[in-house]
Amino acid sequence: MATGHDALREIFVTGLRNAHAVEKQALSIMTPQISRIEHYPEVADRLRLHVDETNSQIARLDEILAGFDTSASALKDTALSMTGGMAAITHSVAGDEIVKNSFANYAFEHFEIASYKSLIVLAEDGGFAQAAPLLKQSLDEEVSMARWIDESLPLVTRRYVQLYAEAGSMEAKV
Protein backbone atom coordinates (compact mmCIF):
# COMPACT_ATOMS: atom_id res chain seq x y z
CA MET A 1 0.00 0.00 0.00
CA ALA A 2 1.29 3.47 -0.95
CA THR A 3 2.09 6.02 1.71
CA GLY A 4 0.39 9.40 1.77
CA HIS A 5 3.48 11.00 0.26
CA ASP A 6 3.68 8.35 -2.48
CA ALA A 7 0.01 8.91 -3.31
CA LEU A 8 0.51 12.68 -3.42
CA ARG A 9 3.53 12.23 -5.71
CA GLU A 10 1.53 9.98 -8.03
CA ILE A 11 -1.36 12.46 -8.15
CA PHE A 12 1.07 15.32 -8.76
CA VAL A 13 2.84 13.56 -11.64
CA THR A 14 -0.52 12.66 -13.19
CA GLY A 15 -1.58 16.29 -12.85
CA LEU A 16 1.64 17.44 -14.51
CA ARG A 17 1.04 15.07 -17.42
CA ASN A 18 -2.54 16.29 -17.71
CA ALA A 19 -1.38 19.93 -17.70
CA HIS A 20 1.17 19.10 -20.39
CA ALA A 21 -1.56 17.61 -22.55
CA VAL A 22 -3.81 20.61 -21.93
CA GLU A 23 -1.03 22.96 -23.05
CA LYS A 24 -0.61 20.89 -26.22
CA GLN A 25 -4.36 21.19 -26.70
CA ALA A 26 -4.10 24.95 -26.26
CA LEU A 27 -1.55 25.10 -29.08
CA SER A 28 -3.85 23.11 -31.35
CA ILE A 29 -6.65 25.58 -30.61
CA MET A 30 -4.69 28.84 -30.91
CA THR A 31 -2.54 28.08 -33.95
CA PRO A 32 -5.44 27.69 -36.41
CA GLN A 33 -7.10 30.78 -34.97
CA ILE A 34 -4.00 32.88 -35.63
CA SER A 35 -3.76 31.69 -39.22
CA ARG A 36 -7.36 32.72 -39.90
CA ILE A 37 -7.55 36.13 -38.21
CA GLU A 38 -7.72 39.04 -40.66
CA HIS A 39 -9.56 41.95 -39.03
CA TYR A 40 -8.50 41.63 -35.41
CA PRO A 41 -4.71 42.15 -35.43
CA GLU A 42 -4.46 42.75 -31.69
CA VAL A 43 -6.08 39.36 -31.08
CA ALA A 44 -3.66 37.65 -33.47
CA ASP A 45 -0.70 39.41 -31.83
CA ARG A 46 -1.77 38.42 -28.32
CA LEU A 47 -2.41 34.82 -29.40
CA ARG A 48 1.08 34.68 -30.96
CA LEU A 49 2.56 35.88 -27.68
CA HIS A 50 0.54 33.30 -25.77
CA VAL A 51 1.68 30.53 -28.14
CA ASP A 52 5.24 31.45 -27.15
CA GLU A 53 4.25 31.44 -23.48
CA THR A 54 2.52 28.09 -23.93
CA ASN A 55 5.64 26.59 -25.48
CA SER A 56 7.57 27.84 -22.44
CA GLN A 57 4.95 26.33 -20.14
CA ILE A 58 5.36 22.98 -21.87
CA ALA A 59 9.13 23.23 -21.43
CA ARG A 60 8.68 24.00 -17.72
CA LEU A 61 6.35 21.02 -17.32
CA ASP A 62 8.90 18.84 -19.11
CA GLU A 63 11.56 20.09 -16.70
CA ILE A 64 9.44 19.28 -13.66
CA LEU A 65 8.52 15.85 -15.02
CA ALA A 66 12.19 15.11 -15.72
CA GLY A 67 12.88 15.84 -12.05
CA PHE A 68 10.61 12.90 -11.26
CA ASP A 69 12.42 10.70 -13.81
CA THR A 70 9.38 10.62 -16.06
CA SER A 71 7.94 12.43 -19.06
CA ALA A 72 4.68 13.60 -20.56
CA SER A 73 2.07 11.15 -21.78
CA ALA A 74 2.25 10.95 -25.57
CA LEU A 75 -1.24 9.43 -25.63
CA LYS A 76 -2.76 12.27 -23.60
CA ASP A 77 -0.87 14.88 -25.62
CA THR A 78 -2.10 13.41 -28.90
CA ALA A 79 -5.69 12.92 -27.76
CA LEU A 80 -6.09 16.44 -26.41
CA SER A 81 -4.32 17.99 -29.41
CA MET A 82 -6.80 16.25 -31.68
CA THR A 83 -9.80 17.48 -29.68
CA GLY A 84 -8.36 21.00 -29.72
CA GLY A 85 -8.00 20.86 -33.48
CA MET A 86 -11.59 19.67 -33.83
CA ALA A 87 -12.80 22.54 -31.64
CA ALA A 88 -10.96 25.02 -33.84
CA ILE A 89 -12.57 23.52 -36.95
CA THR A 90 -16.02 23.65 -35.36
CA HIS A 91 -15.78 27.37 -34.71
CA SER A 92 -14.38 28.10 -38.18
CA VAL A 93 -17.77 27.45 -39.79
CA ALA A 94 -19.58 29.86 -37.47
CA GLY A 95 -20.49 33.27 -38.83
CA ASP A 96 -19.33 34.82 -35.57
CA GLU A 97 -16.13 32.76 -35.31
CA ILE A 98 -14.05 35.48 -33.61
CA VAL A 99 -16.66 35.96 -30.89
CA LYS A 100 -17.09 32.23 -30.28
CA ASN A 101 -13.31 31.79 -30.18
CA SER A 102 -13.08 34.58 -27.62
CA PHE A 103 -15.65 32.87 -25.40
CA ALA A 104 -13.92 29.50 -25.73
CA ASN A 105 -10.46 30.96 -25.13
CA TYR A 106 -11.69 32.74 -22.01
CA ALA A 107 -13.15 29.52 -20.63
CA PHE A 108 -10.05 27.52 -21.57
CA GLU A 109 -7.73 29.99 -19.84
CA HIS A 110 -9.74 29.61 -16.64
CA PHE A 111 -9.50 25.83 -16.90
CA GLU A 112 -5.72 26.18 -17.13
CA ILE A 113 -5.68 28.61 -14.20
CA ALA A 114 -7.54 26.09 -12.05
CA SER A 115 -5.15 23.34 -13.14
CA TYR A 116 -2.06 25.33 -12.19
CA LYS A 117 -3.58 26.39 -8.86
CA SER A 118 -4.22 22.75 -8.01
CA LEU A 119 -0.71 21.72 -9.08
CA ILE A 120 0.80 24.44 -6.89
CA VAL A 121 -1.12 23.11 -3.87
CA LEU A 122 0.15 19.62 -4.60
CA ALA A 123 3.72 20.90 -5.03
CA GLU A 124 3.58 22.77 -1.75
CA ASP A 125 1.89 19.97 0.20
CA GLY A 126 4.12 17.30 -1.29
CA GLY A 127 7.36 19.12 -0.62
CA PHE A 128 8.13 19.44 -4.33
CA ALA A 129 9.56 22.92 -3.79
CA GLN A 130 11.48 23.03 -7.07
CA ALA A 131 8.22 22.83 -9.03
CA ALA A 132 6.26 25.61 -7.34
CA PRO A 133 8.05 28.65 -8.88
CA LEU A 134 7.82 27.16 -12.37
CA LEU A 135 4.12 26.44 -11.92
CA LYS A 136 3.52 29.92 -10.50
CA GLN A 137 5.17 31.44 -13.56
CA SER A 138 2.81 29.49 -15.82
CA LEU A 139 -0.15 30.45 -13.63
CA ASP A 140 0.77 34.13 -13.92
CA GLU A 141 0.90 33.84 -17.72
CA GLU A 142 -2.52 32.18 -17.83
CA VAL A 143 -4.02 34.82 -15.52
CA SER A 144 -2.56 37.54 -17.73
CA MET A 145 -4.04 35.96 -20.86
CA ALA A 146 -7.46 35.51 -19.25
CA ARG A 147 -7.38 39.15 -18.12
CA TRP A 148 -6.45 40.27 -21.63
CA ILE A 149 -9.32 38.31 -23.18
CA ASP A 150 -11.71 39.73 -20.59
CA GLU A 151 -10.58 43.28 -21.29
CA SER A 152 -10.56 42.87 -25.08
CA LEU A 153 -13.96 41.18 -25.45
CA PRO A 154 -15.87 44.49 -25.71
CA LEU A 155 -13.51 45.67 -28.49
CA VAL A 156 -13.80 42.36 -30.37
CA THR A 157 -17.58 42.34 -30.04
CA ARG A 158 -17.95 45.93 -31.20
CA ARG A 159 -15.59 45.44 -34.14
CA TYR A 160 -17.50 42.28 -35.12
CA VAL A 161 -20.79 44.20 -35.10
CA GLN A 162 -19.25 47.05 -37.11
CA LEU A 163 -17.78 44.72 -39.74
CA TYR A 164 -20.99 42.69 -39.87
CA ALA A 165 -23.02 45.85 -40.50
CA GLU A 166 -20.59 47.01 -43.20
CA ALA A 167 -19.84 43.76 -45.03
CA GLY A 168 -21.78 40.83 -43.58
CA SER A 169 -20.96 37.91 -41.34
CA MET A 170 -18.38 36.23 -43.59
CA GLU A 171 -16.21 39.36 -43.65
CA ALA A 172 -16.62 40.02 -39.90
CA LYS A 173 -16.03 36.49 -38.64
CA VAL A 174 -12.21 36.57 -38.39
TrEMBL record:
> Which InterPro entries did the record assign?
DUF892_YciF-like, Ferritin-like, Ferritin-like_SF, YciF
Query: What is the top-level taxon of the source organism?
Result: Bacteria
Q: Which Gene3D superfamilies match?
A: 1.20.1260.10
Q: Which SUPFAM superfamilies does UniProt cross-reference here?
A: Ferritin-like
Report which gene this protein is encoded by: yciE
> Which source organism does the UniProt entry give?
Sphingomonas metalli
What is the protein name stated in its UniProt record? YciE/YciF family protein
Q: What Pfam families does the database record attribute to this sequence? A: DUF892
